[in-house]
Design goal:
heterodimer, A: 162 residues, mainly alpha, Four Helix Bundle (Hemerythrin (Met), subunit A), 2 domains, 0% strand, B: 117 residues, Methane Monooxygenase Hydroxylase, Chain G, domain 1
């Protein structure tokens, strides 16, 4: 990933990410979040994580965003009511930002050039590679995921039907 | 990255088609305004209430159930790609997985989780 590609992606990504928190209307914020997730998916493609990029769009930009929009509709958020109630969120954001920067600094110190793209196996991150691992080596976690999803269905029905 | 060029072309083409259609209809379309025509359309009924009205929490159930089964389908993609290599073993593995979720589906149908009333 060269510098031109990086900035061609990074600048729009940061702009739409800022728009998520800056836009007064929650529905527009949700739409900007969709764009953020799409641009992040492109980054996953550059990292050879093909399956993760697809999941980012199918699950996050698809399913999770539907949930976000439902929450917006359920809470009946209006642009003007949000303005008045921001209880010290700025301070929390500053603390979170400082921690994130510190972590990034540590990560940059620890990183080495050994993790070059050339050291990856040939079909790294592809759907085939993931599938052949998931259904042989990680079969038990996969089946347990099914039970986890079943628990989610039962939990949702029990809570909503009370 | 080369295999994603068609995806990029499709994305750009989709955006161009949407823009062209929107602009063409504003430029070429005949516009007549009247009090009734400018009302928001609500399935032929006279509009009632605010568009910002609250939705019942029951609809939230539909969203959560959609996510659960969306995640189930996510596991079907890699399975479909390596299906021939896995053979009968992979088939049974996925059958077990889907059966567990069918239990959830039967449960939610019995509890009326999919009824919209």
């Amino acid at each position: 990933m060269d510098f031109v590609t990086f900035f061609a992606l990074a600048i729009p990504l940061v702009v739409v990410a800022v728009m998520v928190i800056a836009h007064p209307s929650p529905v527009y914020s949700a739409l900007f979040l969709v764009m953020t997730l799409f641009l992040l998916a492109v980054y996953f493609l550059f990292l050879n994580a093909h399956m993760v990029a697809a999941l980012q769009i199918i699950v996050y930009a698809g399913a999770i965003m539907v949930l976000f929009l439902f929450v917006i509709m359920l809470l009946n958020l209006q642009s003007d009511t949000l303005r008045t109630q921001r209880h010290g969120l700025g301070r929390v954001a500053i603390i979170g930002g400082v921690i994130l920067l510190a972590e990034l600094g540590l990560l940059l110190q620890g990183s080495s050039s050994e993790l070059a793209e050339s050291s990856l196996p040939e079909n790294f991150g592809t759907v085939e590679a993931l599938g052949s691992q998931l259904f042989t080596k990680y079969l038990l976690p996969f089946e347990i995921t099914g039970i986890l999803l079943l628990v989610a269905v039962v939990g949702a029905v029990v809570l909503a039907k009370r | 990255m080369d295999q994603y060029v068609p995806v990029l072309i499709a994305l750009i083409l989709g955006g161009v088609v949407a823009l062209v259609m929107t602009f063409a209809s504003t430029m070429l379309g005949v516009k007549t305004h009247s009090a009734v025509k400018d009302e928001p359309f609500e399935c032929g009924n006279p509009p009632s209430g605010s568009a910002w009205g609250r939705f019942s929490v029951k609809f939230y159930l539909a969203a959560i159930l959609f996510i659960v089964f969306d995640v189930e389908v996510v596991f079907l993609y890699p399975w479909a790609v390596v299906f021939r290599q896995l053979g009968l073993f992979g088939f049974i593995a996925m059958l077990l997985f889907v059966l567990v979720l069918v239990v959830g589906l039967v449960y939610e149908v019995k509890k009326g989780g999919l009824e919209s009333t």
